[in-house]
Amino acid sequence: MNALVPTQLDEALRVIGTHPDALVVAGGTDAMVEINAGHRRPRMVIAVNRVAELRSWTYDPAGATVRIGAAVTYSELMESPLAELIPALAEASRTVGSPQIRNAGTLGGNLGTCSPAGDGLPVLAALGAVVHLASATRERSLPVSDFMVGVKRTALEADELITAITIPVLAGWQGYSKVGVRNAMVIALASACLATDVTTSSVRLAVGSVGPTIIRCADAEAFAGESVSFARRSATPATVARFGELAAAASHPIDDHRATAAYRRHAVGVLASRLLRRAFPND
Amino acid sequence: MTDDFDSSRGLHSDVFALSEIYALHVNGGTHEVRDAWIGESLLFVLRERLGLMGSKGACEQGECGSCSVMVGGELVCSCLVLAASAVEQSIVTIEGIAPVGSPSDVQQAFVDAGAVQCGFCTPGLIMATHALLERSPEPTEFEIREELSGNVCRCTGYGRIIDAVQRVAVRRRAVQP
Amino acid sequence: MSALVGERTRAGRLGDSITRPDGTAKVQGSFQFSSDLNAENCLWGATLRSPHPSARIVSIDLSAAYRISGVEAIVTAADVPGQATYGLISQDQPVFASDVVRYVGEPIAAVAADHPETCRRALEAIVVVYEVMAPLTDPERVLDGSHPPIHPDGNLIRHQRVLCGDANATGPIVVEGTYEIGMQDQAFLGLEAALALPDPGAAGVELYVATQWLHEDQKQIAACLGLAPAAIRLTLGGVGGAFGAREDISLQVHTCLLALRTGRPVRMHYSREESFLGHVHRHPARIWMRHHATADGLLVKVEARMVFDGGAYASTSSAVLINAVTHTQGPYRCPNAVVDGYAVRTNNLPCGAMRGFGVVQACFAHEGQMDRLAAACGIDPVDLRLRNAMVIGDKLITGQVIENVAPVERCIRETAALPLPDEPVGGHDRNTMRLPGGAGRTADAGHIRRGIGFAVSIKNLMYSEGFDDYSTARCRLADGVVTLKFATSEVGQGFVTIAGQIARSVLGVDEVVLGTIDTGVGSAGSTSASRQTWMSGGAVNAACLKVRGLLFDAVAALYHVDANSLSIEGSDIVGASGALRVSVLEASTGLEFDETVEYRHKPTEDLDDNGQGDCHTAFAFVAHRAVVDVDPELGLVKVIQIATAQDVGRALNPLSVLGQIEGGIAQGLGLAVMEEIIMSEGRVRNPSFTDYLLPTFLDMPSVVVSLIEEPDPIAPLGAKGVGEPPTISSTPAIVAAIRDAIGRPLDRVPVRPIDIIG
Fold first, then answer.
1. Is residue A32 domain-resident?
2. Residues of A in contact with C699 (CB under 8 A)
3. How far off is chain B from C539, nearest CA to CA, in Å?
């Protein structure tokens, strides 16, 4: 048998350790596309989407965090109460592929593939999520920004598995926007997640599809933090416009058959401005 | 073929083996799969090894929904499920929806409403519609559109399909006490 | 084994919205599409394709591929026993490239093996050495003569001029524009698939295939295999949509060759990527038009230059071009014209038939011009179109007089009168997901502008330019049951439904059995050009009428009445006096009538050098109104509603007509805002459904439809073909609506976000 379907985490880590060349799949929605096209020919496959520990999530009210198992699906992320705890992640999940894809695709898979267009990733970046990795012999956790190394490149070692993602639960408005040419089932030409934190009066912005990996827009965040009013939930039109410019300036997209770099840069600026306006609806 | 070719065959079988053996639970029965390649999708195995030709392949990348089946109670694209990983799960295909000649209410509504033209997307849409109405018995038009948005139809422009789904919802409501 | 066993249909006469005879099988997944067919001991076939748009083939080495376990046969150009090339109009396309390749995806070899993965590995193991050449990708380089021929037939496939009236005529209002149409794919869902069963001793082959025209395939396959046509028996494998892409040969010859070579059944299925490379597409085109009009907006003259990129091989390019140039004026009176159209050969993907067949491109240009003219004259765009609307008896720029029903004015007025959507931007529930951008929630209602656009079109029906256009049908009546036999490809359009309706109406029977669709009866012609309701409907009708005549003769002899006094009433034969009433069942019990009829429409003519001649048979008309919401800042569009009034002659099955209208509009919408095969330097950048975007449930709006039923006396059943018109003017209507929303010209489809943001 060259397909292993562990149901316990320790078993999964053990077989991954003994078969470091095996293809590890969760929902399979990325890997199978490559296999069907003949671009990937696995000798051995380890499917981890039946591992109970990876399929659950827990909320820690005291620590204000949610820990989400890596094999939790997008459909599950869209459901209450997770959707209320991390609304931007629910919004992002709703833009992933189709209902069928969302029923199979997982947050861990989104991280593992690490496409610049991965819909969950700007949310994780904006919220400052932590990725938990484990092998048969060790565990480690690292900030999502360190986990994502480049286009489809991550810090994951061959014997490791993404086990969970810890996401801070922030008090404050948050949202996700994504530009595609179709009204459903489309890959992002540009995407953005904006999250506000009323306890620190800070604004976070992460953008996708406009660089090799997800970009946190530090200048835009700092500018917004100084320029908006959390008390009145207001931002001036000039602030909104400037915020978009800074987001666009932080991006470094490429031309491809889906869109030009210029359009992507423009679009991500528009998204940033509109998200800031949604967060701060008053002038 | 010369002996030369035959002697080299052993080398290649190493690389590409038709050696997987596993069992799938499909439409209430257990089906043994033998001599399969590890890279085969559930769609391929359903069609080519189990003879269940109702699920259709049209894109091989989850962009059309024609291959939709239920796996473990969830609607998924069978082209994106590695068959050998779908063991120990209940799989329902279009053939498991209703016996041949006795269409389900959804199937009958598709026929009656003119929701079928070439019919290639239809089995996937039937699966998706059953899943939708199971979860949401009285969907709004927008909900129908969103929940079926993973099923592409090239013939109908979707209008008659929406009509078919709404007909089922109305009828099911009418028969409820 | 059989692909489509006799469908049995009951009840429903002409005009009834009865359901499809294959409907239950299709909803249950038991309908056999060509990709579902299998046979004992069957092999898989696969095709090796060129990775280069232009290259010389230096050598092909099959030895490593043959060493792979499970590989049973590999065929190349050297193995083609008959004619090396094929094609619908000119036979200029090689079965396999031998000396040069002319487009990315051109077949070079085919493999038969035990498993698709074995095939894939074998293809990878075939070593082809190429000498890569710079591709010819710019059609203008053909016209300026700056590129040497890339094919023995030359780089110009056809030039056609149309000169009508006074070439120097002009008017006070002159508007011009240059319009571009991108390459659209038919994107049927049921990928190319065939099953070939060889006869013992390779004497012939039985082919189950999804095609639009069994007999044309038979002719071309036989020529390439060096066999008599009768040795190739074709049966229609269930067809998962066609839209023009199955009019040309794709895998037919390859599958048969592999079956004959191995002596075993062979199945060949294309992948989606391969399908994008393996069939012809809608021609990308560049069209310049200049319209001259009076101050009141009446057309004085149209000038046009059209360049259609035919890609590497001719396919139907010359016919597509003729459709475009002869439809330059649209459904409007125009006394003078100077038109030059060119179809050229390049190293881009071959182009040919797609729903609308050249008229889509011409219509996008003339409707853009009509809006420009309306603006220049200060006249409402709908009013301008009404002022110029064609009527029966008007002359086309080819000199041909419109003889059939031409309710252009009614199409326009009824479309304009249909209700506009009542919901505000974002809907009554203010759901941001209803706005352009959809689930991406890119906008709020305040960012959105709404626009309305209008477009009208004319489309020729059936084949043109002197083609011997006919269809064959056989009708057998015995014991009250009618059996129909025809080779008409059912591709989803529903001919199998109306065939039964025709038989029931003519013969008064309830039960109609449809024979297998195969080459066991004469040709039906292609399921294209909106022609099968007219042509095969005409043939079935004529065959049924002939049988009815024989039945009446028998009844007349038995009851000593005049056969001419008999008619069908319900399921009975009745005499004029009312004295005789006998059921068809009773009258036909113990008897058998079996008649085969070929139906032809009136002959058409070739065009002369000045583009004059009665080259078309008949025309249908339609108007479309589009309402769109646009996000001008992000360049995103959501179509909110399409309204249409279509000239259908007579709706033989209103539900089927509605399905054709809605489905055709969806394809027009796709071309308007998302569908394009993107090529650069001869390479396809987006050969997948991830990147070639088709409209989803969330992109296609509701359609408000008015059927204009003025039965056409020229048509055998009064009915016009309804398949193509919905696709044609829906595209320019949507683009006009986007222009209306943003207040800027848009002269290219599909409209991209960057075109909108400017």
1. no
2. 182-184
3. 23
- Rg (Cα) of chain A, in Å, rounded? 19
Q: Do B16 and C492 touch (CB under 8 A)?
A: no
Residues C47, B44: Cα–Cα separation, whole Å: 19
Query: How high is the pLDDT of residue B128?
Result: 98
**From the list C436, C633, C678, which residue is nearest A270 (CB)?**
C633
Tell me: the pLDDT tens digits for C294-337? Answer: 999 999 999 999 999 999 999 999 999 999 999 999 999 999 99
CA atoms within 13 A on the CB side of B171: 12
Closest by alpha carbon to C625, among C388, C372, C423, C418? Answer: C418
Q: Which helix (H) or strand (E) holds C290?
A: strand C285-293
pTM tops 0.80 = yes
Q: What's the confidence (pLDDT) of residue B12?
A: 37
A110, A142, A168 - which closes a domain? A168
Query: Chains with ≥3 Cβ pairs under 8 A against C?
Result: A, B
CB C316 within 8 A of CB C308: no
Q: What is the pLDDT of residues C46-77, one digit of tens each?
A: 999 999 999 999 999 999 999 999 999 999 99
Amino acid C129: pLDDT: 98
Residue at a domain's end among A133, A168, A203:
A168
Per residue, the 3-state secondary structure of C410-475, as one string, reads: HHHHHHHHCCCCCCCCCCCCCCHHHCCCHHHCCCCHHHCEEEEEEEEEEEEECCCCCCCCEEEEEE
For residue B19, pLDDT over 80 is answered with yes
The domains located in chain B, with CATH, are: 17-95 (3.10.20.30), 105-175 (1.10.150.120)
CA distance A20 to C500: 63
Question: Between helices C495-507 and C532-559, what is the axis angle to 10°?
Answer: 20
Is residue A8 a part of any domain in this protein?
no
Residue A14 lies in a domain: no
Q: Please state the rounded mean pLDDT for residues C433-442.
A: 96
DSSP 3-state of C482: strand
For C135-168, letters b (16+ CB in 10 Å) and e give bbbebeebbeeebeebbeeebebbebbbbbbeee
How many structural domains is chain A composed of? 2
Question: What are A77-130's pLDDT values in tens digits?
Answer: 999 999 999 999 999 999 999 999 999 999 999 999 999 999 999 999 999 999
Out of A181, A189, A274, whose CB is closest to C443? A274
Domain annotation for chain C: domains and CATH numbers: 7-32+470-600 (3.30.365.10), 35-134+210-239+246-268 (3.90.1170.50), 285-464+607-757 (3.30.365.10)
> Which residue of chain C comes nearest to A256, CA vs CA?
C685
Q: What is the pLDDT of residue C690?
A: 96
CATH of the domain at A98: 3.30.465.10
The reply to whether A143 and A230 lie within a common domain is: no
Name chain C contacts of A179, Cβ cutoff 8 Å.
Answer: 437, 440, 442, 634, 636, 753
CB contact under 8 A, C659 and B64: no
Whether the bond between C750 and the residue before it is cis, its omega within 30 degrees of 0, is yes
Tokens read off for C699? 């992109």
State whether B88 and A50 contact (CB < 8 Å).
yes
DSSP B62: S
Do the chains contact at C698 and B149, CB–CB below 8 Å?
A: yes
Of the candidate ranges A98-107, C393-402, C420-429, the one whose mean pLDDT is the lowest: C420-429
Considering the domain boundaries, does residue A47 fall inside one?
no
Q: Measuring CA to CA, which residue among C89, C677, C647, C742 is closest to residue C413?
A: C647
Report in angstroms the alpha-carbon separations of B163 from A121, B7, B27, C353, C501.
37, 61, 28, 31, 24
DSSP of C376-405: HHT--HHHHHHHHB--TTPBPTTS-B--S-
Q: Which residues contact C419 (CB under 8 A, 6 or more apart)?
A: C643, C704
What ipTM does this complex have? 0.97
